[in-house]
Amino acid sequence: MLSLHGAIDDASGTVVGLYICENECLNGYFETMRQCVLNHGIPQSIYSDNHTIFRSPKTGRLTVEEIIAGQKINMTQFGRAMNDMGTDIIFAKTSWAKGRIERLWETLQSRLPVELAMRGIKTIEAANQFLQEEYIHKYNTHFSVEAEGESIFVPLRSDVDIDTILCIKLKRKTDIASCFSFKGRCFKISTEGYPLVPAKKEITVLVGPRFGIKVKYQNQVFTTIQYLKPERKDANTSVTQKVKRNVQPHLIHSSDKWKLIWHSEPFDLSLKFLYELFFDKNVS
Question: Which end of the chain is less enclosed by CB atoms within 10 A, N or C?
Answer without folding.
Answer: N
